[in-house]
Inverse folding.
């Protein structure tokens, strides 16, 4: 990155997929704050959207019309350089809100550009944050990684970080002092630094994959 | 990449995680051949290891001693620029052999270098190929993506490709003409081209993440 | 079952977890119709609730207050002998609506009776139906099975049935003629017959597990 | 159950799916011991097989010939009334050994009896035990539940129990005092008591499902 970077600050968008509307306390929000601070120190602009504070309709297109506020969120996704899906664990899996988000993100794959068919997310980097009082972080992370990879994002080394406690009911991130849990902080630092490196890399040297041309090759191969 | 690339050809290693030893027909092998051909045309050196043809011990270290032949395979992983885990689907999930492979790859995370603690896999790119007669490809892919990301690999846009048929018993990849299935070929082409772009990127501009230093920062954050 | 059973017809409740509100065509609805017909022929009363046609709030209690219509649905769950969660596949997994449903069902576990602490769902039998144009049925089914088992339901042999087509975009259940797919119909028949046997069994001979007493034993074991 | 039960004691078989051969310490074994004790007090005969102590070949039939010792294990599965798959967590998922076991159990579905086509496992009840130092128990349990349900087993209320610790490396079951963890002990007690109830139920009133006849019905439905 050159000196001009200071005027073109990189940005990260966090989608908080808690089930609880503001102003209820969100453990996921507290977890996001830790990563956000690290990004800020690295001169990255940060933004957080708490998805349930907006009316997002169930569906799998970029605009479900009516009261749907997803288009506003999608605009922010298109504006960022890095995206982090942050979800609490419920029933050992990502939240229904996090699932709803990736369903809506399927619309992205229909928006390839005219030049080479790349979706608007090509050259953006993604990460995943999962917090719960117990078990489920890797299942949630894995599912989200697959979705983001197919939807146009690149995933760095250690693309995820999580906090979970012992089996059964117990304190969640804030009460458990998750912000002082070494393993989790280490994962978060690795994720942030690796995301940033990759985002800079793709800024300088973006994918040249011609999605439209490859579709034609695939057709020829399949005859 | 510069002209010197011709002498430093990039390489991809496929780990075929079929349950069946040679010389039994492997559908996964036929699927690998398609991706391998695409890589070859892009001037990438290819190598395939059929894991069950070697004695790999159950365990989670880089060398389980005794008859264990994993160290030979690990050496090939360390030698490649790109790694593809290719697995058949059994019971709607990756094969036990594919699971055994990622368990053994946990040893990688103990082998950080002296300079910055990066594992030997940092700056390598990974992909996933899954074939089955039916259902299970995304579950298998997602689980493997998480493993590879934590174990030091970077995952490009569309890091996976798969073939599956209709619900229930039915023809597998070869018999079903999977090599003529447009969707699958398109996914394979995207995966290969994106992997290659990212591998070149990381060759020119490798991660600078100081894993050892971040560990210290994580400790300070956690006090 | 005795002669009095004719006046105490067994009942099954289907929760259709499509993303689409009525009157949009729901493939999941067409799939449910097949199972419903089989149940009817076996003299079982059937009822279907299309969850998105009701305002269900995100949350994990039995009543999230305000506009929440979950309590009405929960009432129907408590009234049935057998419950079937039917979900379409999106992103290789159960729908966000299906996830929202099991999150809300967590409230059930707080409603143990005074006598022995059993939840209101003890002695009810559950099944799962999944339809998609491709891959994801087993992942969706497995996740739902775990949830239902913990939330008080018993799962018979072959507790699930599904329809999926080949890898990639393609016709869904209705267009694909899923109602004529032998494997799927066979799975559906097995599920229905086994659910019914088990429901009758538990009617005659319900669980005697004293949940409250076992909690005390667990405490003693853990001292 | 009648007085004759004393001569027809019910039995449970545990399959320990640790990666480590005897005599290495197995946390999973220590966890099994807790459930085994509870079963013994309820007058149930118990047996444990540590799978890796036997040569089990990769495959998906009941006899892979050669050195394969799976047939001996399958014989014990057929002899038991209740089966528990017990697996450690590696990479947030069931062990490769546990995956290998369910792959081999696919052979069961080809062994329907002459009378009604029921597999030898019909009327057996199953449970799942998962232990790890951290995250992964529900993912592992869910996958195994689906497999066992399709392979002929019935799953009671709360068919699984698990122990996991906080995110990251940490003490496993034995060192962490998992045998004193209230939540886990409570889950284990519930699983055991519910399994036993269901096993007795199915002894007295076994499934009458005519698998062979339903196959014919499915064919007619699919024409």
């Amino acid at each position: 990155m050159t000196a001009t970077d200071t005027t073109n600050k990189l940005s990260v968008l966090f989608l908080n997929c808690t089930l609880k509307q503001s102003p209820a306390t969100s453990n996921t929000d507290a977890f996001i704050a830790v990563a956000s601070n690290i990004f800020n120190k690295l001169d990255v602009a940060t933004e957080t959207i708490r998805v349930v504070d907006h009316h997002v309709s169930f569906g799998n297109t970029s605009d479900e019309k009516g009261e749907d506020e997803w288009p506003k969120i999608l605009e922010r996704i298109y504006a960022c350089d890095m995206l982090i899906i942050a979800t609490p664990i419920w029933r050992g899996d990502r939240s229904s809100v996090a699932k709803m988000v990736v369903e809506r993100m399927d619309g992205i794959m229909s928006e390839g550009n005219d030049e080479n068919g790349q979706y608007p997310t090509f050259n953006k980097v993604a990460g995943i944050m999962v917090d719960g009082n117990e078990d489920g972080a890797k299942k949630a992370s894995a599912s989200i990684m697959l979705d983001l990879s197919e939807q146009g994002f690149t995933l760095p080394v250690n693309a995820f970080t999580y906090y979970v406690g012992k089996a059964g009911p117990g304190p969640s991130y804030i009460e458990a002092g998750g912000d002082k849990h070494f393993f989790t902080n280490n994962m978060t630092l690795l994720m942030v630094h690796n995301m940033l490196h990759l985002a800079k890399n793709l800024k300088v040297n973006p994918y040249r994959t011609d999605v439209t041309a490859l579709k034609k090759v695939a057709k020829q191969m399949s005859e």
In short: The beta strands of chain D are 11-16, 45-50, 82-90, 93-94, 124-131, 153-154, 160-163. Chain D has six helices and seven strands. The first strand of chain D starts at residue 11 and ends at 16. The two ends of chain D are 44 Å apart (CA to CA).
